[in-house]
Amino acid sequence: KAAARQGSLFYYLAVMAAVEQAQIAEPRSKPLMSALDELRMAATNGPGGDAEEGLAEAQGAVHALVEELGLSAEVAEQFKVAKATSHLDMVHEVLPGIFVGGWAALNDGCSQLRDRGVSAVLSAVAPGGGR
Under a CB-based contact definition with an 8 Å cutoff, are residues 90 and 105 in contact? Predict the structure, then answer.
């Protein structure tokens, strides 16, 4: 169940990157972007009830639109890139130039950040969240 949600998020990122790379304009991309929002929500909502079925439906809708727009090859290539990113990395590039990571990325003189060319950091922590 968790693996299916993670796979769907990788697919979401791959499709987003393929749409950006193909420079598909707003009118043509709007149905796909709406379907991607549905997929993201289905993948990030907690398990229970019809969650797995909703996830499969959302992914199917995105896949159909990807094929309709002729993006299958681009998405497959982007999916390989997304899956190749190690889950052991301290920093993950979620969109071009946008990275997400935890406190560990600030260790070792911020080398994980410097290696990726990160020049600014936004911290989002809960009150009393520690460090």
Answer: yes
